């Protein structure tokens, strides 16, 4: 084994931890012949994670932890000795002990921390993986793992780690917050799975009170927080021995992590490479903000206000019990009185004044009140409280007297008007000013406020203007990188209050806007609480994660409460349908149309065959093909897209798409494959050739009004030139036209096994694969025998009959159309 090497020094300024580290190139293993101390580290094989000593903030306490190796701002994800720090890392050591455990020893050689695993051999090594997992395993057999850090998470949920319950031992694997921002000791907030065995997470205060729930898991999302699975696909395991959640290690460049924060919230942070900063992508509880719903967030006599920062403050007459804890983000210790109450022996002194009450309006009343019966006025309720030395507050509301004894918890300022009440807080008389001093205070306050308001308005206007300009400029500079999180106000500014509408659909409207440097953007404003949320999640998890020249690029997004917006690159030429169907003259030459068909096929082939999961677009039509300045096509509108894992051949989903482009299997309700997109592509290819809708009556023809039937007829006659859009005046490459028509006919076969893949479609269009004469689908043969005018309903009823008969024939003898299809399909290499 190679010992970690020392020698390269890289001082880093650490705003989060306040420490300069010497980060050096190192191995990923601690063996019996090596150890760590001082500045020494080990690094995972891919350089993603680092293990060593670190010092959080300005403290003199050192801990052994794991942090991200490619993030310059040191961010720990696991801490070994979180309750027992060491004073000097240079005299402390991490090593493999004689019994095979990984241990931390201080300067005196005393044991500070150990893996405490039951090892059968003292020949073990500790290896740090790129997933953030520190494994203690047999030196000669890497599959024999005797201990791993993922089984003992601290405040961060890493991929591969389990959060759940061992039903046999009763042991719960949970996330526990730090005590404060500089102390990794266990805090008072936990994220854990329901101990009663249901598939929902709870956030628990002080191991006693559940104040937030994720809702149960339905196999895809949590009922109460559906947006929690934007980037991670959670896996839920439940059996007689245990039930737990985990999510896989995807080994992507982007870093996203879940943290149980000292604020009592579970937060998802994402590292933005372009801005070199962490952004808060998602957090709970919130509605849209529920910071004050965290139980006892501000401690005793502390009041929470979600409209200001910091959220917590001591109520009048009180001060922080421990100011240093408050400064580090831990306000749970609460507040103590400035002046003791004049009660009992104090009240009997000659110069004492009786306690008074501070009126606090718009308050959420604290918990654990008592109701005094038989009291019918505010004055009697006040007197009852004064006469009891333990009474600290009262409220008279609805004809009833409520009193509180001892500490007051969960106070909240500026509470909901419909639920707010007035609380009378008991204070020593010296804490409340006399009426005269009140008048002076009010006068000075009015004058000061008037001046301050004028100054603040000017400053606010300047700051908002500068911040908006700088953020949009950063967004403009980041357009070539990852997703940009926009604020709603920024998109209002970029689109001039959504004044230039350029399109719309079932999920909302699209507006044109621009970033600094005149970069045009298209902003889709999703509408409808359920459908808009569903499309938002689908598009971010599909087009947001993939890049291709023939897929419209998602630049960023905005998710603020009910405001869900998606920001795309702007396509100057609009959608394909406007050029095919709505223009008397055409900008689309045959060469341009053919290139559009090729580009669209490339985009679909990428989705079907080259992504990690097969992505079925489910809504291919001219309206969803956008064109740039040079008429290059890009697929858009992934709101109906469906993922299909590579281990599955079909996926069952509800009917989705647009009438006129739906494959027969949609109508019969059977599970679909990527061939459903192939069918839609074929129908669209007919329209690219003809320049009109498939279901419109032709103006100059005695043939049936359904264009695909006309294509089959003219192919048999060898009269393909008559199929071309009349606006092209015969200017066409006849070989390409015949190839496109035959290919479209193959794509719309009733039996999906007879349709080509999008990869084969692309090979045909590019001339690498020869295409034979296609058979006429049974649904079209039935149509050609029907004398009535063809419309959408008749066509789809016919498809249903044909598909049903086709399904029956598969269990018996093949019909003639299937026989012809199979014959054509076996025509030899380079043909189908």
UniProtKB/TrEMBL annotation:
Transmembrane annotation, as ranges: 441-464
Enzyme Commission number(s) of this protein: 2.7.11.1
GO terms of molecular function: ATP binding; carbohydrate binding; protein serine/threonine kinase activity
Main location: membrane
Domain Apple: 343-428
Pfam families reported for this sequence: B_lectin (PF01453), PAN_2 (PF08276), Pkinase (PF00069), S_locus_glycop (PF00954)
Membrane topology of this protein: Single-pass type I membrane protein
Domain of life: Eukaryota
Binding sites annotated in the UniProt record for ATP: 525
GO biological process, one term: recognition of pollen
Catalysed reactions, semicolon-separated: L-threonyl-[protein] + ATP = O-phospho-L-threonyl-[protein] + ADP + H(+); L-seryl-[protein] + ATP = O-phospho-L-seryl-[protein] + ADP + H(+)
Signal peptide limits: 1-26
Spans annotated as Disordered: 805-832
Location(s) in or outside the cell: Cell membrane
Residues covered by the Protein kinase domain: 496-769
Coiled-coil spans in chain: none
Keywords from the UniProt entry: ATP-binding, Cell membrane, Disulfide bond, EGF-like domain, Glycoprotein, Kinase, Lectin, Membrane, Nucleotide-binding, Phosphoprotein, Receptor, Serine/threonine-protein kinase, Signal, Transferase, Transmembrane, Transmembrane helix
Domain annotation Bulb-type lectin: ranges: 27-149
Assigned GO CC terms: plasma membrane
UniProt similarity note: Belongs to the protein kinase superfamily. Ser/Thr protein kinase family.
Name of this protein: Receptor-like serine/threonine-protein kinase
Lineage: Eukaryota, Viridiplantae, Streptophyta, Embryophyta, Tracheophyta
């Amino acid at each position: 084994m190679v010992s970690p090497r020392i020698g390269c020094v890289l001082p880093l300024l650490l705003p989060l931890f306040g420490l300069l580290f010497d980060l050096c190139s190192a191995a990923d293993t601690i063996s019996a012949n090596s150890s760590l101390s001082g500045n020494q580290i080990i690094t995972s094989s891919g350089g993603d994670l680092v293990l060593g000593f670190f010092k959080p903030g300005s403290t003199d306490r050192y801990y052994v932890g794991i942090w991200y190796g490619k993030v310059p701002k040191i961010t720990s994800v696991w801490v070994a000795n979180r309750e027992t720090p060491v004073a000097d890392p240079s005299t402390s050591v991490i090593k493999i002990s004689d019994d095979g455990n990984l241990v931390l020893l201080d300067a005196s050689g005393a044991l500070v921390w150990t893996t405490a695993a039951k090892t059968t051999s003292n020949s073990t090594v500790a290896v740090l993986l790129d997933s953030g997992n520190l494994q203690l395993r047999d030196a000669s057999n890497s599959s024999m793992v005797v201990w791993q850090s993922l089984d003992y998470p601290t405040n961060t949920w890493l991929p591969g780690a389990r959060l759940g319950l061992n039903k046999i031992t009763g042991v719960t694997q949970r996330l526990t917050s730090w005590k404060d921002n500089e102390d990794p000791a266990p805090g008072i907030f936990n994220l854990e799975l329901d101990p009663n065995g249901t598939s929902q997470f709870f956030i628990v205060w002080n191991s006693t009170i559940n104040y937030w729930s994720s809702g149960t898991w339905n196999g895809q999302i949590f009922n109460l927080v559906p947006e929690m699975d934007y980037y991670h696909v959670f896996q839920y395991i439940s059996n007689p021995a245990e039930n737990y959640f985990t999510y896989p290690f995807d080994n992507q460049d982007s870093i996203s992590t879940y943290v149980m924060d000292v604020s009592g919230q579970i937060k998802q942070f994402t590292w933005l490479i372009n801005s070199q900063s962490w952004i808060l992508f998602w957090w709970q509880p919130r509605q849209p903000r529920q910071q004050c719903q965290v139980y006892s967030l501000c401690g005793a006599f502390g009041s929470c206000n979600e409209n200001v920062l910091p959220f917590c403050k001591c109520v009048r007459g009180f001060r922080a019990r421990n100011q240093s804890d408050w400064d580090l983000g831990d306000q749970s210790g609460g507040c103590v009185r400035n002046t003791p109450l004049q009660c009992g022996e104090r009240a009997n002194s000659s110069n004492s004044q009786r306690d008074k009450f501070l009126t606090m309006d718009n308050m959420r009343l604290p918990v654990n009140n008592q109701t005094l019966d038989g009291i019918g006025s505010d004055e009697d309720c006040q007197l009852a409280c004064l006469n009891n030395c333990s009474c600290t507050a009262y409220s008279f509301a609805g004809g009833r007297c409520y009193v509180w004894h001892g500490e007051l918890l969960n106070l909240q300022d500026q509470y909901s008007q419909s639920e707010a009440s007035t609380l009378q807080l008991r204070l020593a008389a010296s804490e409340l000013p006399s009426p005269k001093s009140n008048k002076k205070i009010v006068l000075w306050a009015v004058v000061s406020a008037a001046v301050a308001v004028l100054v603040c308005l000017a400053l606010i206007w300047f700051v908002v203007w500068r911040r908006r300009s700088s953020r949009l400029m950063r967004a403009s500079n980041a357009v070539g990188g990852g997703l940009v999180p926009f604020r709603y106000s920024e998109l209002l500014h970029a689109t001039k209050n959504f004044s230039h509408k350029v399109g719309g659909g079932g999920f909302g409207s699209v507006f044109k806007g621009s970033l600094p440097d005149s970069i045009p953007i298209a902003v889709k404003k999703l509408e409808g609480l359920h459908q808009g949320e569903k499309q938002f999640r689908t598009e971010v998890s599909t087009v947001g994660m993939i890049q291709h020249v023939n897929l419209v690029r998602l630049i960023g997004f905005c998710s603020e409460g009910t405001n869900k917006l998606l920001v795309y690159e702007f396509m100057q030429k609009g959608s394909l349908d406007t050029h095919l169907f709505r223009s008397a003259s055409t900008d689309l030459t045959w060469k341009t149309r053919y290139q559009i068909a090729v580009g669209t096929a490339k985009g679909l082939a990428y989705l079907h065959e080259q992504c990690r999961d097969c992505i079925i677009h489910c809504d291919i039509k001219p309206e969803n093909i956008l064109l740039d300045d040079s008429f290059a096509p890009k697929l858009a509108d992934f709101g109906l897209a469906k993922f299909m894992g590579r281990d599955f051949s079909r996926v069952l989903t509800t009917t989705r798409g647009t009438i006129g482009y739906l494959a027969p299997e949609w109508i019969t309700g059977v599970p679909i494959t990527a061939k459903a997109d192939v069918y839609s592509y074929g129908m669209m290819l007919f329209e690219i050739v003809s320049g009109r809708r498939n279901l419109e009556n032709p103006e100059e023809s005695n043939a049936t009004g359904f264009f695909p039937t006309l294509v089959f007829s003219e192919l048999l006659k060898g009269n393909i030139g008559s199929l071309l859009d009349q606006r092209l005046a015969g200017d066409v490459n006849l070989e390409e036209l015949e190839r496109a028509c035959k290919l479209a006919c193959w794509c719309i076969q009733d039996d999906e096994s007879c349709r080509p893949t999008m990869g084969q479609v692309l090979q045909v269009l590019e001339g690498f694969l020869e295409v034979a004469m296609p058979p006429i689908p049974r649904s079209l043969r039935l149509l050609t025998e029907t004398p009535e005018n063809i419309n959408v309903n008749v066509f789809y009823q016919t498809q249903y009959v044909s598909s049903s008969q086709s399904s029956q024939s598969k269990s018996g003898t093949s019909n003639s159309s299937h026989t012809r299809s199979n014959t054509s399909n076996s025509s030899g290499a380079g043909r189908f």
